[in-house]
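[agent] plan:
  1. take the single chain provided in the ticket
  2. run structure prediction with default settings
  3. attach structure tokens to the ticket
  4. add a short note for the reviewer (M.T.)
[agent] executing step 1
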Amino acid sequence: MQIVAPAGNSKSLIASIHGGADAVYLGMPHFGARAKAENFDCLALKQAVENAHVFGVKVFVTLNTLIKDKELGDALNAARDAYGLGVDAAIVQDLRFIKLLKKELPDLTLHASTQMGIHNADGAKQLLDLGIKRAVLARETLPSDIVEIKQTGIEIEFFVQGALCVCFSGNCYFSSLASSYSGNRGKCMQICRKPYYFNGERGYFLSAKDICLYDRLKELEELGVDAIKIEGRMRSEEYAYTACSVYSSDYDVPAAVEALKSVFNRGDYCSAYLDKESPFRVIYPQSQGNIGLSVGKISSVVGKTLWVKDFTPHKNDGFKVMRNKKEVGGATVRDGKIISDGKCRAGDELRRTFDGALSKQISHAQPRRIDVTVNVQLKENAKPIVTLATANGIAEQYIGKTDAYKANNHPITRDDVVNTFAKGLSDEYPFNPCVIVNIDGDVFMPLSELNLLRRESYSVLRESILRHYSVVKHGLSYNGLRYKKFDGKGTLLMVENERQLSSEIISKIDYLVLNPSDYSKFAVPQIDKPILLNMPITMRGEDRDILVNAVNRPEIYGVVSNNLYTLGLTEKPILFGVGHNLIGQTDLPHVTSFEADCLDNGFAYVFGYAPVMTLCHCPYGKCINCSGHDELKDENGRVFKLRRVKEAHCYWQLLNCVPHFLPVDNVQNRFYDCTVIGKKQIAEVLNGRFDSNFTRGNINKGLK
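[agent] step 2 finished; step 3 output follows
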């Protein structure tokens, strides 16, 4: 399987390459999902592509944010620049941008970002219609679905290491609605890593553990995964190098996990959703940050000095001190001793979160090199000839610019030439030379000219290797999304069940949208208005049978789609819902995202407690026959309702603490999400009144 590694900056790029990456993914200054990474301007990107391609390492550029109308031109220019510099693929999310790229740059290979939330074969088929070659699957994808996705013919990339977002991939709006800094535009404020109160306890109940799937690589390969991906463009070069070297190695599992924990470890790792028990194991409520590698229990404390039996710290080490899995302090090394800054005691666990020796070890690690045979011919009164050949058949000959001449005293020796051609190697000239020297007579060359001969001949070979590198163009045809369009106008009202309706309410709407809490059993109201079914964002494994039965019920006129998989389930009219996160003008019939900062030609999301997250894990950590309703409270006292959505699997929506409520003057097409309010409030909302606190989303403050 191909190893796809992070490159948040030039140092991490080189670290990933030397660690053993087969491909790297990186961002440009804009339109990438890690806006806070150092990223690469055009000059740096050119150098990055060359540094990667000389080793045969592919470069995937991230253009995977949501893009506003006024930004589409700049985004297209960025893609043109990247394509012109020879990137191997662009990672994308925005449906409108994908269509534009397929029109303007049809030969640019496209990969679907994990932000597109592809997690089943039905969604993968839609990608193929869009002309997309590879799907970076949602981290929530189940093993049985990976097998079926592979059967569609699309390439599969799957995250095996690094951060696990608690929200279903691509559908987190928490940061955006709280601050206007959108995770879907690369500017997540990581509100999920803050403490919350749940069932009377304070903890990090939205903070997921990191993924580590080193012990599952064989299984993933058998399932059909083509490429394994390491998350971490915001992490250190030590992390990039170590993660790549581990995943490209044959370490035993304990050694691999120990090496990985030494560079970053949130929550002692989880296995994503590959196991039946995974939904109960992804959260680590005791700590939200890196807890590193345990080095043992504190044996004694004198003042602020800590000792751990049989452990000697490295210079510049950093530590966290944990008690009952909770952080109680930190520690650093001073004069060879471990000095704490908290109230630590014997029996507490000491965990190294920064290894002061690791950077030094990595800097002295064997760099990646290209085996080259170098044949140097020196002859009196003749220009030197250097013939170079790589193991894979690339060969060049370089003729020096000045003649060698007869030596008066000290002729040049074979060792002189070998030593010269073996030195000065770098990322610019990344060769492992086997030097063959043929000297005819007593020949002399100044050392400066011999060094120049090395540099120029190596430069010729490097350029030849880059010329021979071929960017494989997968210009798959764009067929567009095939579905029956919903062409309705007017007012759509979404409710959970019939108890929320009255004759007055029904008289004020044009369409009813059902948003059931259980898709295996729900009643369809007997009313004289067309009824649409709101489809969930997720459809995993056995969920499919339940949703197919639901959508094909004869009382259902059409559907509101929130993920591409829906398009393959029905021939009924389809309206693209907020789950598709459309924020600009489009020919897709849609509800405008509640992230948007302006109204477009879709249905305006006028009212609703927006589902800021969709959770695939159980918030209780075990099945307790729950009511399907609960809440989280933040440290400012704001209450966020939890609503369970049941298919074959249980999912949870985290609803915003206040509803959207937009002015509707001059708005023709309106979408009211009244799923969690009663009929009295619904009637008031439809009449343009809401007396409690509300938000206008990003309409006034802008989407950043």
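[agent] step 4 note for reviewer: The mean pLDDT is 94.
[agent] ticket updated
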